[in-house]
Design a protein that fits this description.
single chain; mainly beta; 0% helix; 4-stranded mixed beta sheet; Immunoglobulin-like
């Protein structure tokens, strides 16, 4: 065994292993953790160093690069505690063109966690050409019945290409397809950027409007003129009260 019953363990998590063998040398293993934690510890570790964004520039045509950084560090309010670090990427990893978030989660023995995040940005040197929008939706109109004040609208997402092959384009939009829009006109904006920060923009409107119907009512009221000229200007002796147009929204 790695430890015996009654051993003193420090704060944190320690793996205990028992290897049990028979006379023929066949072995079975039992493993478990001994976890020593401070009672009532609800304070996460304090990040004492977290790297800033890391930018690596490569020549045109190169699609990836190795990025390195100094590892984040942290302290805890409980002395001698073993801090546990789980990261999305390690220093020395190869990153593709574009922006990649790197996350370090640092936990103490009580499970309290602090997080350090930064970006690794791989850019193509000399790239000043923005992406090319190859599809941008036209204005989208949706009609609703009277009394309805909003509607859900969907559309095909804009698409773009870039002059640098295999580049990771980043899209930031004001609204996503499937959003609920209020009555009226709302501007939707998509900003699409390449790894060098060059940006192209796609804009269109979402228009939510009530369905309105128009009908005309003809008056049935007539009068007989008392003079040679009718009150409506006609000489046929008939009075035409005219028509009245009404516009209303459908119910």
């Amino acid at each position: 065994m790695s430890h015996t019953f009654g051993t003193t363990f420090n704060l944190g998590t320690t793996l205990v292993a028992y290897n049990i063998s028979d006379v023929a040398g066949n072995m079975a293993t039992c493993t478990f953790n001994v976890i020593v934690q401070a009672a009532g510890d609800t304070t996460p570790p304090t990040i004492t160093f977290c790297p800033s964004d890391v930018t690596v520039e490569v020549k045109s045509g190169i699609t990836s690069a190795v990025a390195t950084w100094i590892e984040p560090t942290a302290t805890d309010n409980v002395t001698l505690v073993n801090l546990s670090t789980v990261m999305s990427h390690t220093s020395g990893t190869t990153f593709n063109l574009g922006t990649t978030p790197v996350v370090y989660n640092i936990s103490d023995a009580a499970g309290n966690m602090a997080t350090c995040t930064f970006n690794v940005i791989v850019t193509a040197a000399g790239d000043t050409t923005p992406p090319t929008i190859i599809f941008c939706p036209s204005d989208v109109t949706v009609e609703v019945k009277s009394g309805i004040t909003s509607a859900v609208e969907t559309w095909i997402e804009p698409t773009a290409t870039d002059n640098v092959t295999l580049v990771n384009l980043t899209t930031v939009m004001s609204h996503t397809s499937g959003t609920t829009f209020n009555l009226g006109t709302t501007l939707v904006v998509y900003n699409i950027s390449d790894a060098a920060g060059n940006m192209a923009t796609c804009t269109f409107n979402v228009i939510v409007q009530e369905i309105c119907l128009q009908h005309t009512e003809q008056s049935s009221t007539h009068a007989t003129a008392t003079s040679d000229k009718a009150v409506d200007g006609n000489t046929n002796g008939n009075y035409n009260a005219g028509s009245c147009a009404h516009t209303r929204c459908a119910i």
